Amino acid sequence: MNNTLDKFNLRQVILEAVDQIHHQYIIENLPESIQQKFDNIVINGMGGSALPAEFLSETFSQYTVDNSAYPVYINRDYSSSKYITDSSLILAISYSGNTEETLSAYESAVATGRVVIAMAAGGALIQRAKELSQPYVVIPNPSPDFQPRYATLYILKAIIEVLIQFGVLSDIARDKVINLVNQVNPKDFESQGETLANTIKGKTPVIYATCEYKLSAHLWKIKINENAKTPCFWNYVPELNHNEMVGFTNPQANFQFVLLQNEVETSRNIKRFSKLKQLFESRELSVVNVIVPDFGNKLANLVAMTLIGDWTAYYLALSYGIDPTPVDMVEEFKLLMKD
């Protein structure tokens, strides 16, 4: 594999992904008095900056003392979320700090007199929080070409710190999230991803997971889109068995189906995977199973499953002769939006 294509050393970024969970944060401009009770969490964000909110939503109960969870609403639009109440804890996350949708939603929420915590590596969002004396957290920016889609654990840890400071979580959450993620070693999945990239090359990947791990299937799609610059699709069982699979009666491309599952999943959805593979292969559709080790907790399992997707997308990009880091079309689109 031609690793000289990796001009911005994305391989090292993936190898160091788990280390992000150790970063320590300071929340600037904390209010002198903090509301005593919140009934939900609203997080504004787009693209890679919204991914940590998805992780939080899927794993919230792992950070609490009594395994309880708060509703987490993710707002991916220009306007304020309809779920904001007088008892909402509101965050705005833009890794660059310049995401126009997030900036707009931030201004809308702040204009109502609410406290909104800004998170970014810099840019207009941090500057605006300073001007308004609103709370903000600066996310690390290891290099000028570091991509938001690889800042997930940086931002998740920052969110956990905010939830601690605002009384939603206790101090034990800080060590909990570290201990959960620390079990995973990114290097352990590199060869698996490289092998899978060779299987996918030249085909359109379709990533399926069980309902429990559908977030990882979505993340695989994002990483393959942005790294390999190629189409990719995702869904989950049992829902896809009621609609999407019928579309492959008359497929219009050369698809490669990837079935993601945790090694200890025993639900009826695993039987659905088995029967789906049987059904597809009887129609000469290519299917491969990806079995992911179980770490005894959902956060570590999600991280491990996502890392296999990271490596797959990385090596798929190299196999196509593509530098996996830049997302030129995104930058070109931003310029068009400024016209």
Structure, explained:
- This protein is an alpha/beta fold and 339 residues long.
- The protein folds into two domains: 179 residues, Glucose-6-phosphate isomerase like protein, domain 1 (Rossmann fold), CATH 3.40.50.10490; 134 residues, Glucose-6-phosphate isomerase like protein, domain 1 (Rossmann fold, 3-Layer(aba) Sandwich), CATH 3.40.50.10490.
- It contains eleven helices and nine strands.
- The chain has a five-stranded parallel β-sheet with strand order 2-1-3-4-5, with helices on both faces. A four-stranded parallel β-sheet has the order 7-6-8-9, sandwiched between helices.
- α5 packs antiparallel against α6.
- The mean pLDDT is 95.
Brief overview:
The protein is an alpha/beta fold.
The CATH H-level homologous superfamily of the largest domain: Glucose-6-phosphate isomerase like protein, domain 1
Percent strand? 15-25%
Q: Write down the domain tally.
A: 2
**Roughly what percent helix?**
25-40%
Number of strands: 9
What's the CATH class label of the largest domain?
Answer: Alpha Beta
Shape: globular
CATH-defined fold name of the largest domain: Rossmann fold
Please, what is the average pLDDT? 95
Distance between the termini: 40 Å
Indicate the CATH architecture of the largest domain.
3-Layer(aba) Sandwich
